[in-house]
Amino acid sequence: MREIRKAAVLGSGVMGAAIAAHLANCGVPSIMLDIVTPNLSEDEKKNPKKRNALVEGNKANLLKAKPAPLYSKSYLNMIETGNFEDDMHKIADCDLIIEVVMENLDIKKQVYAQVAQHRKPGSIVTSNTSGIPIRAMAKDMPKEMSQHFMGTHFFNPPRYLRLLELIPGPDTLPEVVETMAWFGENVLGKGIVYAKDTPNFIANRILTFTMSYILHEMTKEGLTVEEIDALTGPAIGHASSATFRTADLVGLDTFVKVVKNVYDGCPDDECRDYFKMPDWVEKMVEKKLWGNKTGSGFYKKTDKKDEKGKAIVQAIDPDTVEYRDPVKAKFECTGAVRSIEDLAEKLKIMHFSEDKGSKFVFKLFANVAKYAANRIPEISDDIVNIDNAVKWGFAWEAGIFETWDLLGFEEVCKRMEAEGFELPAIAKAVKEAGGNSFYKTENGVDYYFDVATESYKPVPKNPKEIRLAAVKAQPNKEIDRNDSASLIDIGDGIICCEFHCKMNAVDADIVTMLSKGVDLLEDGKYEGMVVANQGPHFSAGANLFLILGQIMQQDWGAIEAMVRGLQGANMRMKYCSKPVVIAPHHYTFGGGLEICMHAAKCVIAGETYAGLVEAGVGVIPAGGGTKEMTVRALELVPEGVNADPFPFIRRSFEDIAMAKVGTSGAEVVELGYLRPTDIIEPNFELQVGRAKNVCLSLIQAGYRPPRPPRLWALGETPRAAFEAAVWGMKEAGFASEHDMLIATKVAYILTGGDRAEGTPITEQDLLDLECEAFCSLCGTEKTQQRIQHMLTTGKPLRN
What we know:
The longest helix has 19 residues, at 203-221. Helix 26 runs antiparallel to helix 27 (646-657) and helix 31 (737-750) runs antiparallel to helix 32 (763-778). By secondary structure, the chain is of the alpha/beta class. Helices cover 44% and strands 13% of the residues. It is built from 33 helices and 23 strands. The strands form 5 sheets. An 8-stranded mixed β-sheet has the order 3-2-1-4-5-6-7-8, with helices on both faces. A 7-stranded mixed β-sheet has the order 15-16-17-18-19-21-23, with helices on both faces. It has 3 domains: 7-194, Rossmann fold; 203-378 and 389-457, N-(1-d-carboxylethyl)-l-norvaline Dehydrogenase, domain 2 (Orthogonal Bundle); 469-613 and 661-707, 2-enoyl-CoA Hydratase, Chain A, domain 1 (Alpha-Beta Complex), CATH 3.90.226.10.
């Protein structure tokens, strides 16, 4: 396997800069080159800074871009810059060269001619094109370069969308494809899809048909822009931007060009007529109603306000191509699924109900499914790559053929035939082979139906991946279970404590299962434990509904027992004689983060959004979180050195009192919640497997639990400084009286309570202070209001 240590990114526009940023996220330094800044004077042309002003400006824009393309702003220094005229020779140091210049074949070929002069033999050259044929770009390349050339189609924004389509050219060596697949999956955290060199490859080919079909058919069905978005968003497991908000993000001008790629490049496509835009869309293009980039597209934000003070967003009327005031979409099917979480249940209601919206949704699905099935083997050899492309490229919860299975294979076939559809060849082949689904699982192994062999084959899987659902499906692997968590034997003497309740909110059942896991380790039955799950979020924090119920009953003993239970479980994990490795991901708030802070090591997903946010609901971190923030601050003060601990404890105070949230694994570490020695894993699919391997490596290294930390009270002086700062914020209108009360209690704990400066203290002393502060705050009216507001609205209340 070739090693990629440094990359070149040729082109610094939105996509080029974002790719360079994600390389930096994953520890890969790069040099980003672009054209010399245009329109320079003769004197400016002699100034290197002026010559590189364009690329430097695009690099600087990475710090302002939303959503943030970098895990950490500090990663920006991993991107070197230059220009094509002065610095192309620097690509000789690079193992990978990614071309991301404008979508113009002639311009790309000019760049490749320069690349051919300077690249080192064996370096891989790729294009991020979304539509130009790979074979056309490779045509005039030297043989050795064309053998190392292929398409690597990242999706924007590359940090957040997992899809990476790999498209070999006619001369591409198999080992080059293999290297890029390994690098994309294991280093960049991408989901790899193998595409063929056809117009728009896989994901955009399917999406352009889907959206083109909607544009043509919605007017025939009398459906509005708002109604289409209501039917094609989260209600069917698709992104919240649905159809037309997505189009406004992409840009209608860009979308029409991508659609034209198919119309021009696929003369034999049976649905080619759909790729010719309807007149009303062509008029939108002429009027430059392109979406967000021009200020108006399918939607237009106005200066007018509604009764709640929100800006009124108008929508385009296809009949007049003029804007009109919003019309609320009302369908029985969308109303019925609003409170349903199970995807299969939602899909069945949305596709099989009797209202107008549901009938359109089924008709849309049937046409898209048939179109996708007919693209095998044109754009892909199997359904797995097609399903993964739409899931990873567009954030769909289920792929097309997975959706067919969730709806019921036979039910969809019967409905399609009843409505006059001819079943696609693959559906007929499944029936003839005696199957009743496109996918199936046997003995923990996932299979897909392969149309070429008319048989089921194992779904390709990275050997590093552990899928907990598949492990649990095997006999005797789930060794204990309650409503909120399970203990699973994941092999090699390692157990996994998996959370599986709503939002994985920490409750007594989770605490019980963590303790049972530690019992198994201490009893010598297992050698290590991973705490992980593969749900949407690691944990949204404590179960506020249960806490509020105990408050309403004034059951203060139960609240204290709950706090002590989580503290005890966390301390048992921290000082267990065998390693506990924890794998936080996505939402990891409050009590969920406190659990992670007691791990021997964390394997953090790159996309982790974590913080001790308890102040937002009127309490303080009391599961050991405030204690651990004190520990982490004071351990930064070297023993035997007369250093001021205040700057370190101040960071902990600000994190907790201001409920700061890290918006990446790297930021969570920078805030001090987790440690620099913890590991960041960009590929969520590989996180559990990596956590297990880290656990095994700790065992192999002769793991011993940590020694108790060196702790001392900081006394009144820093506490007074914190209180004065909060008072100033209150006087300036940035904090309320209750915010001040909460912050005062945080300062009291962090500085060791009422003990004199320098007095030695223990972790238990801090835990006791946490518990007292938490329980006392629960007794206040304003904290109760905050908890009620969060449960009702999902948003914090500043009272």
